[in-house]
Design a protein that fits this description.
InterPro entries: AceGlu_kinase-like_sf, Asp/Glu/Uridylate_kinase, Uridylate_kinase, Uridylate_kinase_bac. Belongs to the UMP kinase family. Pathway: Pyrimidine metabolism; CTP biosynthesis via de novo pathway; UDP from UMP (UMPK route): step 1/1. The protein is of the alpha/beta class and 288 residues long. It folds into 2 domains: 1-47; 54-284, Carbamate kinase. It is 33% helix and 20% strand. The chain has helices at 19-22, 61-64, 74-88, 106-111, 116-140, 162-170, 188-198, 233-239, 246-254, 269-274; strands at residues 27-33, 38-43, 54-59, 93-98, 145-149, 158-159, 174-178, 203-208, 214-215, 227-228, 230-232, 259-263, 281-284. Strands 6-5-7-4-3-8-12-13-11 form a 9-stranded mixed beta sheet, sandwiched between helices. A two-stranded antiparallel sheet has the order 1-2. The chain has a two-stranded antiparallel ribbon with strand order 9-10. A hairpin with a 4-residue loop joins β1 (27-33) and β2 (38-43). α3 (74-88) crosses α5 (116-140), α7 packs parallel to α9 and α8 runs antiparallel to α9. The longest helix is centred in the middle third of the chain and has 25 residues, at 116-140. The radius of gyration is 22 Å and the shape is globular.
Amino acid sequence: MTERQFVFPKRAEHFCVPFFLSRSPCARSFVGWTLEGVQFKVEGEQLEQPVFKRVVLKVSGESLSGQNGYGIDAVTISSIAQQVKDVVALGVQVAIVCGGGNIWRGIAGSENGIDRATADYMGMLATVMNSLALQDALEQIEVPTRVQTSIAMQQIAEPYIRRKAIRHLEKGRVVIFAAGTGNPFFSTDTTAALRAAEIEAEVILMAKNKVDGVYSADPFKDSTAEKFEQLTYLDVLNKNLGVMDSTASSLCMDNNIPLIVFNITEQGNIKRVVLGERIGTIVKGSVD
């Protein structure tokens, strides 16, 4: 908390608070009279300055399942919601894309004999379930939230409308994009890249629940796996690192949208990334 002195002339028999003080989001309280005039104190002034104004948070389905590996873990989803709330409190506009792998994977379903398009639509419905669960967790801690779906289901969510999504973000609401792109054969990684381009987000935050960045190999299988601090999208494509699918990587590269891969299980990591702390791996057009 800081104090800032606002000094006004001594002749204040008919003193009134200036408009910019009364309308500011910071709470200002009257302290008392000084020799110079009137002293005010600024309470709750934000000292931490985020480096991003609008972000897309990509949360994998596995991140919502916690240690269970399947379904939705209440403790885990509450932890993620609290991290999102901390970021919103900084004034950052947050949009979220949820995966559905904790409930259903379209590729796995197609490998078991289900038509690929049908399996992908089932996966889209799984992302809607995750999105509604995350919306409930956020609203329980008083974070205003809207779910927008690419497949119309007006009884439970809004249809995705780009301008409406941007307006929600400008009003401080968290927007959760569900049901993927609404088309089969596209992953939720592609959804995150597409929505980030559409709403002009500055970065995609890819939250992982097992690894803390991008490695040259699976760190759980190869003890010599090297963690990268920076990569280019061409590196991701050429080395087949599996950060995101090729369609999503190309879309991010073409629209110059950086990607930060980090571990979401450590409390406060989303806030650290938004404040500019170098954690995880950053993927962008070129390496510094």
